Every structure is written in structure tokens, then in C-alpha cells.
TrEMBL record:
The keyword Disulfide bond applies. PANTHER family: HEME A SYNTHASE. GO terms for molecular function: metal ion binding; oxidoreductase activity. This is Heme A synthase, cytochrome oxidase biogenesis protein Cox15-CtaA.
Amino acid sequence: MGRRMARAVAAMTLFVLVMGVLVVATESGDACGFDWPYCGGKLYPDPSNVKQVIEYTHRLVTGLLGLVVVANAAVAFHPAVRRRGGTGLALGLVALLFLQAGVGGLNVLLGTPKGFTTLDVMISEALWAAVMIYLARREADETALSQKPAAGDRTALKALRRWAAVLTAAVYGTLVLGGFFKHSALAEVFFGLEPERVWLRDPGLARSVYVLHGTLGLSATIAAAALGVATAHLTIPLRRRFWLPVAAASTLLVLEVGIGFVVVVAGLKPFWVAAHMILATLSLGATAFLYGSVDAALRPASVSGERTAERGRRPEGLGRAEFAGEGRG
């Protein structure tokens, strides 16, 4: 039950983020005006106005995400789920969601003031990373509740967790800095374009942000390589468990970097900017999920999980029928 709800939250959060990228790419943020819940003075968008449909859909699915996140928190307190932990993280998702909704609401009511779009990206991506860590915890609850890593694996797992944390932080930093670079119009200043809305005009600041963004990207690449080395030091059972998340995170990072170069060469074309943002979001989700998975593997098995495993273990020399009869007695 807890895992299904966590998956629903992750899927809905990703959909909301992709819709948000689409809103920015199509410049649909102001299509419905600032009289939410109305759209252009009506309770529904004009079907012939694509920008209104995109913006209204984004607002609608964001509201639905709120319901799913709150429902997930309620499920986390169900006795069958609560004994496995994670209630604090589930409540943290609710807090992040309400914070993001507040910033998004102010964005609409105040007419997208300077700086608020970057703050929106910062909180939204933090929510996404927290959701994926929570999902990793729930997946680990269902698949390896009572398994403990061997003593020799703990050192490698700690190294893997450390580099996963570095990679997650670096990818998150590139996302936030990239959002600031784009929404402040420093990107247009850096590339010598003429933006419609300019917040900051200093070319020196634009160069500094661009270099810092590249430095974080390089840090992420180094962390991804270190992840591969740490995974190779695991024993075969754990290596099989973590190679796919490591490969997924590394592959998405490479694709993100590649699309980033295309964005530079193409001169900030909306399609490539949107593709880069979506890939960066997927990369953040993959690295956060990896961190959560490794962290769950290092956590001691819950008491309830150990008891469940103990009850389900058949003593040597005892037949299945005898074991079943003993359990019923």
C-alpha cells in the first residue's frame, strides 16, 4: 500500500514538473491571467487557445498533486506502513508542497515578480528529490526489509551513498542555477540576445553564473564516475541490486550534458531548453532515488520486519505441513 502510493506521488510530481517546463517553454504563464481559479474570466480555458489550455492544465494537476501528497501522508500513518518508518519524510513532502503552492500562488497573484520563478523552481525540484528518496525507502521496505549488508559491504555502501549525495546536490545545484540563469535573463545577456524581460544586465555576473553552472556540471560528472568505482567494490548480490540505478543516473547525466551543449550551440531555442530542463529533472530524480536506495540498505531492518522474517522462516528438519500446523496452533 505504501509503495503504490509513493509511486503515484512520484508519477504525479514528474507530470506536474514536465507541465511546468512546457508552460515556460511556450510562455504560457500569463495565458490565464491572475484571477485564479478563473482563466481569462471563465472557470475553464478556451479550447482554441493552446497557451490557456497548457497553463490551466498545469494549475489543475498541481492541485491534484496536493491531494495525492496529503493522501500519501495519511497512508504513511497506517499501522502496516508506519512501522516501517518514513512518516517524517511523508510529512516533509506535505510541507514542501504547501511551500511550493504558496510561492506559485504569489507568482500568479503578484504577476510573476522578479526572482519568484527561480524560487518556484528551487522548491519544486527539492520536492521532486524528496519524493524520489521517499519512493526509494518504500521500494526497499517491500523488497529487502530484513536484509542486512555484510560487514565488508558497508564501507563500499557508505562510499556509494556519499557520492550519490554529492551527485544529487550537484545536479540540484545545476537545476537551480540554470533556472536563475534563464529566468533572470542572464542567459540572453551572456549570449548577446535581446530579452523581452530583463532583471539583471551585468555581463560579468552572467559569465560568473555560467562558469559556476559548468563547474557544478563537472562536479556531477566526477561524482558519477566515483559512483561506478564504488559500485564495483560491492559484492555481486549488492552490485546486481545497484548497478541499474547507477547506470540510469549516469546515462541521464550524460544526456543532460549533451543537450546542454546543443542549447548553447542552438542559441537558447525553446525546444532544446525545455528538453534540457526535463532531462535535468529526470537526472535529479534518478540520483535522489539512488541515494535513498543506498541509505535504506544501510539502515538496520525494522523490528517488525525482523519479526516477520523470523515467523516466515521454516526451521531445518520441519516439514511444510508440520510448520503450517505449528503456525496455526
